[in-house]
Amino acid sequence: MRSSAIAVLAVVIAGPQAAPAADGMKAATPLGAEILAFEGALTEKAVPGWAAQRGTWARLVSASNDPKVLATCVLTLEQSLAWEAVESTWKARRSAWASEAGRAASMSAAAKLLLDLESHTRWSAVSEAWKKDRDGWVRRVSAIAPATPAQAAPAVAPAASGAIPLETVSDPAMGYRISIPKGAKVLNKTSMQHTYSLLFPGPMNEINVSLATVGEDSLANAVNMIQMGGAGEILEKSQLGPGQYDIVALSPPRWQEVHAYRRKGGVKIRAKCSGPASHVALLKEICRSLEIVK
Q1: ω before 149 within 30° of 0 (cis)?
Q2: Which residues have CB under 8 Å from 166's CB, separation 6+?
Q3: What is the 3-state secondary structure (H, E, C) of the chain?
Q4: Looking at the predicted structure, is the pLDDT value of residue 69 above 50?
Q5: Distance CA 81, CA 222 (A)
Q6: Is 247 within 8 Å of 222 (Cβ atoms)?
Q7: Domain spans of the chain?
């Protein structure tokens, strides 16, 4: 995106350069692994000329446990992205984001930078596999990133799904209306995908609602796509009409997913509602509230 990417990377590299890093290398930190995962999902067109420095960059991300270095690596990757790879709103956000990258001194701050960059990256800039894997990735990076005051967890974790109130949100441009947990934070909002998240205390501490402008031509195809995305046992599946399905899946270790596919005319939207298995009734209520409004 900007020509100074190589110079920025050089600032944080010490010592002689080794051979380019191999794909699939093991990172020293969870954040490093997620940075590599995002970078690996980008298309060649999204990062023109990236191959020349990718090996050194990947090796540094894999080896470092310094949040300042990892934040700089995220900045370096952003500087190599083509403008066409990001949403138009990124131009207004970028200056403040780059300043935050320069000040980042913790893993949580670096993780927040990564989430922000990914949320502004267009679907056209990432692989098809990323569109299936993204929800889990967001969940993992969000666990590293800090909670904002609006997102801060309540003092007592909800004991049952009924303890979490819902509120209705809608987006005329994307064409949906759905009920989500009250107080949920917007993690991602692009022209083709919106993601909401509510965190609360506990080892499995999130209700995540992801909406995307995708659909499947059959219930069998929808089930296959869900299982390819990492879900385990399919607990429930039903067809409501052409292109409209409700599917409930269980992912280890007790992570519940509810998928609602809706179609109206040429508009297709899928809601994926995920969270602890103990909250499956709430997840069903959220996903099944999905309506197409255009």
Answers
A1: no
A2: 179, 180, 181, 182, 285, 286, 289
A3: CCCCHHHHHHHHCCCCCCCCCCCCCCCCCHHHHHHHHHHHHECHHHCCCCHHHHHHHHHHHHHCCCHHHHHHHHHHHHHHCCHHHECCCHHHHHHHHHHHHHHCCCHHHHHHHHHHHHHCECHHHECHHHHHHHHHHHHHHHHHCCCCHHHCCCCCCCCCHHHCCEEEEEECCCCEEEEEECCCEEEEECCCEEEEEEECCCCCCEEEEEEECCCCCCHHHHHHHHHHCCCCEEEEEEEEECCEEEEEEEECCCEEEEEEEEEECCEEEEEEEEEEHHHHHHHHHHHCCCEECC
A4: yes
A5: 32
A6: yes
A7: 5-144, 149-292
pTM above 0.90, yes or no: no
Write the CB contacts of 276 (distance below 8 Å, at least 6 apart in sequence).
Answer: 202, 204, 205, 254, 255, 256
pLDDT in tens, 77-135: 999 999 999 887 788 788 889 999 999 999 999 998 998 898 888 888 999 888 788 87
- pLDDT level of residue 1 (50, 70, 90 thresholds): low
Distance, CA of 97 to chain centre: 18
* Alpha carbon distance 181, 285 (integer Å): 11
Determine the Cα–Cα distance for residues 283 and 281; give it in Å rounded to an integer: 5
Angle (CA) 53 56 59, round 5°: 140
Pick among 2.40.110.20, 3.40.50.300, 3.40.1000.10, 3.40.50.620: CATH of 149-292: 3.40.1000.10
Note the pLDDT of residue 197: 87
The two tokens of residue 237 are 């599946």
CA distance 130 to 149: 29
Largest separation between any pair of C-alpha atoms in the chain: 62
| Mean pLDDT of the residues in the chain | 82
